[in-house]
Amino acid sequence: MTPLALTMGDPAGIGGEITLKAWRALRHSGPAFVAIDDQARLRAIDATVPLRPVASAAEASAVFAEALPVLAETGGAVASIERAAALALAGEVGGVVTSPINKSVLYAAGFAYPGHTEFLAALTGGAMPVMMLACPALRVVPVTIHLSLRDALAALTTGLIVDTARITHAALRRDFGIAAPRLALAGVNPHAGEGGALGAEDEAIVAPAVAALRAEGIDATGPWPPDTMFTADARARYDVALGMYHDQVLIPLKTLDMHNGVNVTLGLPIVRTSPDHGTAYDIAGRGIADPSSLIAAIRMAATLAAARARGQHPAP
Ligand SMILES: NC(=O)C1=CN([C@@H]2O[C@H](COP(=O)(O)OP(=O)(O)OC[C@H]3O[C@@H](n4cnc5c(N)ncnc54)[C@H](O)[C@@H]3O)[C@@H](O)[C@H]2O)C=CC1
Ligand SMILES: NCC(=O)COP(=O)(O)O
């Protein structure tokens, strides 16, 4: 069984702690993963977790029940991501699960990408990536991602919405086995613009995207008033909600199910998931971090990797 690669994330955050907790939770059931990490720092977090240095990812599955396999990486968070992506491209791991990075810290150090999503896209061939967050009750895609609200509105175009929706639609079919995905597109403004009285974007930008997608045979609807499209009744009518800016869709998802949310990158040639949360500096080092979201991310990556390996849902 091909293991997954788990990156180290920000060493000052909760990534190491939840890595060790995830190994304790999964060691007997799997899925197996190899930590691309610094063994000394993991031991300092919890010396009671047995670690096993491995020279290659191929050794990881056989030892996973006994110890957490570690592929030594002392070059830091970015080097860990680069190594994991290279292993996934080479087929040595089934997919990449990333521990959280602190974006402002990396930006200050000159990191040129908004986040993992865009960095992994660049590392794996440059395809347009789409961020999706999923929990059992909801899947959401932010059309614009890590931009200020002002910049997000300026960046929002019908073309961007259509491209994002096409990638989402293809990935839900290929990777998630949904034969005819139903996409619900959020409006931008209160009440989806109230016929233009509360902003022009819904009629000028979002509605033409819905029309273009429907003309291609994609089951897209909207623009929906954002304040009512996340009720339980509304959620039953779609498979994924596309929001026009980050917080429009991440707030409902994290409010519904912060600890089971998974961030999955669509449109890449490799499988990539991560927990939905960040570095949680406020609780780092206290031993109280909840590993559930990371465990859900590991399980989802394994499911997607197995489907791709069977050729059931071929990679985009
Ligand atoms: N995939 C990634 O690399 C992500 C990175 N981030 C980064 O994380 C940094 C901090 O972001 P915040 O907005 O503060 O969000 P955060 O998710 O790190 O923390 C928000 C709140 O949730 C709590 N929390 C988060 N994860 C938890 C867990 N596993 N168990 C228990 N409590 C938990 C924290 O203690 C905090 O009170 C930012 O730099 C952001 O860019 C945020 C989201 C995803
Ligand atoms: N808010 C989601 C987030 O910050 C994750 O970004 P990425 O690092 O997965 O691109």
Automatic annotation (TrEMBL):
Pathway(s) annotated for this protein in UniProt: Cofactor biosynthesis; pyridoxine 5'-phosphate biosynthesis; pyridoxine 5'-phosphate from D-erythrose 4-phosphate: step 4/5
Cofactor annotation comment: Binds 1 divalent metal cation per subunit. Can use ions such as Zn(2+), Mg(2+) or Co(2+).
Keywords (A to Z) from UniProt: Cobalt, Cytoplasm, Magnesium, Metal-binding, NAD, NADP, Oxidoreductase, Pyridoxine biosynthesis, Zinc
Membrane spanning stretches: none
Residues that bind a divalent metal cation: 146, 191, 246
Molecular function terms from GO: 4-hydroxythreonine-4-phosphate dehydrogenase activity; cobalt ion binding; magnesium ion binding; NAD binding; zinc ion binding
Class in the EC hierarchy, top level: oxidoreductase
EC number: 1.1.1.262
Top-level division of the source organism's lineage: Bacteria
Family matches, as Gene3D superfamilies: Isopropylmalate Dehydrogenase (3.40.718.10)
InterPro entries: PdxA, PdxA_fam
Cofactor(s) required for function per UniProt: Zn(2+); Mg(2+); Co(2+)
GO CC annotations, alphabetized: cytoplasm
Protein localization: Cytoplasm
Signal sequence range: none
Gene Ontology BP terms: pyridoxal phosphate biosynthetic process; pyridoxine biosynthetic process
Binding site for substrate: 116-117, 254, 263, 272
Catalysed reactions listed for this entry: 4-(phosphooxy)-L-threonine + NAD(+) = 3-amino-2-oxopropyl phosphate + CO2 + NADH
Miscellaneous field: The active site is located at the dimer interface.
Function: Catalyzes the NAD(P)-dependent oxidation of 4-(phosphooxy)-L-threonine (HTP) into 2-amino-3-oxo-4-(phosphooxy)butyric acid which spontaneously decarboxylates to form 3-amino-2-oxopropyl phosphate (AHAP).
Subunit composition and interactions: Homodimer.
Family: Belongs to the PdxA family.
Name used for this protein in its record: 4-hydroxythreonine-4-phosphate dehydrogenase
UniProt organism field: Acidisphaera rubrifaciens HS-AP3
Classification lineage: Bacteria, Pseudomonadati, Pseudomonadota, Alphaproteobacteria, Acetobacterales
